[in-house]
Design goal:
single chain; mainly beta; 4-stranded antiparallel β-sheet
Length: 87
């Protein structure tokens, strides 16, 4: 039996929260930077270190030698399947 992970909305998440990347798949057009300390005993989940419309110095600070980084950005343009535009 497979346990299905709950999907989060933007209103559900906050910095410092432990999540799986897959739980953020329904949040669009927002940068979410996940990190995991290299020396941690964490298995699969990561910690939310940044949430924002654009990356900045705060998100850049997470990219240091002590963290494993997973950037998450789901582009809403991907929701528009099979739409063709004339040029």
């Amino acid at each position: 039996m497979v346990n299905e992970l709950a999907k989060y909305s933007l209103a559900d998440i906050k910095k410092g929260m432990k999540v799986y990347k897959e739980q953020l798949s329904e949040i669009y057009d927002i940068w979410i930077i996940l990190y995991k300390p290299k020396e941690s005993d964490m298995e699969e989940d990561d910690i939310i270190g940044f949430i924002g419309a654009e990356t900045n110095e705060e998100s850049d600070a997470l990219y240091n030698g002590n963290n494993i980084i997973t950037p998450v950005y789901n582009d809403s343009i991907d929701l528009e399947d099979d739409i063709f535009y004339d040029e």
